[in-house]
Specification:
The complex is a heterodimer of chains A (319) and B (333). By secondary structure, chain A is an alpha/beta fold. Chain A has helices at 50-58, 84-90, 113-125, 129-143, 159-171, 189-206, 217-220, 241-244, 251-258, and strands at residues 6-19, 22-35, 39-43, 65-74, 77-78, 96-99, 177-181, 209-214, 226-231, 234-240, 306-308, 311-313. The chains are: A alpha/beta (319), B alpha/beta (333). The interface between A and B is large, with 49 and 39 residues.
């Protein structure tokens, strides 16, 4: 499926961590495709490896890495063989940037927000300070921060405004792809809706692609062109949002969707009994089998990914 | 729904014109103003009744909650529980009052002491409330653990919070709130830190406990989509006041206050069509409670604000239909 217009192609990406108790297989064989100007939502519960996936893609790795392998094709070019320095110069923040989890609380309190936003442009694009501030100023307009906020400090801004600053910081180098890790989970309802509006508008105006990592299914539908469901370190289902939301295929996706309380329907939400398996010692067969109501003999074997039209699902039921 | 609105219920908690103001001081001496966190809140809560207080952070819901828990002293207004005025209680009376209310915190991991195991955590309130018999204490701990479905009980008794999943930790928090058999539970965003699949499980558990023990529950949340599964009435709070009070179904179907409209419009259901439209969000941000706008506190953000009225006079509660109260000048007649 080599395609010149493909922005991102992830093949069999693995990221394992060494801990005192053993090796944690946080990301274990993830495949993911993304086109230009598209947004994919990676949905999963805490501990399923979604934040580790974002770290693996940006190669922001801690010291206790036990395995880091796979292919990561960015605009057709495999960037996995890059050295760390090449990766820093050519990939991270140049082609792909990140709005980390709780970014709004991670701003430097003693540097003005304008300076913080312009810093990546100086470091990665080699702009002068004045030029970088000019770009930062433009990004402030895109994310909806008033121009006079540029000299303010993080403590003077509300949560929503600080989240916009973090977004401007990711945008300032004009990357083709931004990874958003739970961008709205710490924000209030109306602020969440505002940030979602900003993200939609930027996608339209600047053509940026997104990987949105979240556990909030309802909010994720605000942005999703495609959906990928992650469970226990693996992607179990991918598909177009228009196909996925009305009729998810994988039993886990179905149960996850059924667990969402809805404002506009009378459905009684269900919950999934049991807990996800330990990533230290995941089961050999399907990782969801222990909680799955449709389990049968075949499930003791690991299911391959089955293609259903333009959707993919890792479940024997769809053989 | 546990209680119907037309059923007469005995009042458990009554709040009249409650104000909670915090002093703002310069150099620690002169009072230069007040943060008006709760500004004229009144409501009654019946025995076995559930209400949800919905609002954004900074709207004063935590101050309201702390005052109800007896942790804040009201600046003005009256708070009475079973007919007893809280302001007139002495220390011992206030202590007894606190035994009657359970508190379920938002972040279960932060709310549980990491150096105590489940048994110690659940035993402490019993010791403090004066249950001197160890066997009786253990019996009550086992009973409540079975009720919150922490079974097998023996496996969990000696576990420490870090050994439990988020859902199990929240069950311990609920068990701790319930172990003294309170008459009322105050739950502050009890599920917002939990995963989607666990969230519903905890809400259903709380609902079951509420019905079995005929508890009154004040459920504080910002998530309107969970409210209807849990509460008979909704109070919408904005900048220190309750702007709309109604039965849950009625409020969700016929919201009146423009702020309630905005909250409902901002709540998403999972639907791929959402990606094709922008959400309508009122401009601006909630006001500073130290210097709130004159008149209706929502008027600077309101598209329906009436000049010369909304920006001048604070709206009282109007009752356009029985049992549905709204503090908005649009419903004056």
């Amino acid at each position: 499926m080599m395609n010149a217009t493909q922005l991102l192609e992830v093949k069999n990406l693995k990221l394992h961590f060494r801990t005192q108790k053993g090796v944690v297989q946080a990301v274990d064989g993830v495949d993911l495709d993304l086109d230009f100007h598209r947004a994919v939502v990676i949905l999963g519960e805490s501990g399923c490896g979604k934040t580790s996936l974002s770290k693996a893609m940006l190669r922001l790795l801690p010291r206790n890495v036990a395995a880091y392998s796979g292919e990561l094709l960015l605009k057709g070019r495999d960037v996995m063989p890059f050295t760390d320095e090449e990766y820093r110069q050519n990939v991270r923040w140049v082609s792909m940037s990140l709005v980390p989890q709780a970014a709004m609380n991670a701003l430097n309190p003693v540097i003005s927000v304008g300076e913080q936003v312009s810093e990546p442009a100086m470091l990665h694009l080699g702009l002068s300070k004045a030029e970088a501030l000019g770009v930062a100023y433009k990004m402030f307009q895109h994310v909806g921060i008033p121009a006079d906020f540029i000299n303010r400090y993080p403590f003077e801004l509300s949560g929503g405004m600080r989240q916009r600053v973090a977004l401007a910081m990711a945008l300032v180098t004009s990357p083709s792809l931004i990874i958003l890790d739970e961008p709205t989970s710490a924000l209030d309802l109306l602020t969440q809706a505002n940030i979602m509006n900003v993200l939609k508008r930027i996608k339209l105006e600047l053509g940026t692609s997104y990987i949105l990592i979240t556990h909030d299914i309802a909010t994720s539908s605000e942005l999703a062109d495609e959906v990928a469901i992650m469970y226990a370190g693996q992607i179990v289902e991918t598909g177009d949002a228009k196909d996925f939301f009305p009729a998810p295929l994988h039993p886990y996706s179905q149960m996850l969707m059924a667990s969402v309380p809805r404002l506009r329907s009378e459905s009684d939400p269900m919950f999934i009994t049991g807990q996800p398996p330990s990533l230290m010692d995941p089961p050999t067969g399907c990782r969801f089998a222990a909680r799955c109501p449709f389990r049968f003999e075949k499930c003791d074997e690991e299911p391959p990914v089955f293609q259903k039209g333009n959707r993919k699902v890792k479940c024997w039921l769809h053989q | 729904m546990s209680t119907r609105i037309d059923e007469p219920v005995e009042t458990l908690l009554s709040i009249q014109n409650l104000h909670v103001w915090y002093e703002l001081r310069r150099l620690g001496f002169n009072v230069i103003g007040h943060v008006k966190a709760v500004n004229g809140v009144s409501f009654e809560l019946g025995k076995g009744e559930t209400v949800a207080v919905v609002g954004e952070s900074g709207c004063g819901k935590s101050s309201l909650m702390k005052t109800i828990l007896g942790l804040n002293i009201p600046t003005d207004g009256e708070l009475s529980f079973e007919g007893k005025n809280l302001a007139k209680l002495n220390d011992a009376g206030l202590r007894d009052y606190r035994f009657e209310i359970g508190y379920v915190q938002q972040d279960p991991y932060g709310a549980l002491p990491p150096f105590m195991n489940v048994e110690q955590i659940l035993e402490e309130p019993l010791i403090i409330s004066g249950v001197t018999n160890k066997t009786e204490r253990l019996e009550r701990i086992r009973k409540i653990m079975a009720e919150v479905k922490l079974h097998p009980v023996n496996d969990f008794l000696h576990k420490y919070p870090h050994m439990l999943s988020g859902g199990q930790q929240q069950r311990v928090v609920i068990a701790r709130a319930m172990v003294l058999e309170p008459k009322m539970i105050v739950a502050d965003e009890p599920v917002s830190m939990l995963d989607a699949s666990v969230r519903v499980e905890i809400l259903k558990l709380m609902h079951t406990l509420q019905e079995q023990h005929h508890l009154s529950v004040i459920y504080i949340t910002h998530d309107l989509s969970t409210v209807k599964y849990f509460s008979a009435r909704i109070f919408v709070m904005y900048a220190g006041s309750l702007v709309e009070k109604a039965e849950t179904r009625r409020l969700l179907e016929y919201p009146l206050h423009p702020y309630t409209h905005a909250l409902l419009a901002a709540t998403s259901d999972p639907n791929a069509a959402n990606a094709e439209t922008y959400k309508s969000v009122p401009p601006g941000e909630p006001p500073s409670l130290a210097d709130p706008p004159k008149g209706c506190r929502f008027h600077p953000r309101c598209s329906k604000a009436l000049a010369g009225l909304c920006d001048v006079k604070e709206p009282p509660d109007f009752e356009p239909e029985p049992g549905h109260f709204v503090a908005c000048w649009l419903y004056e007649s």
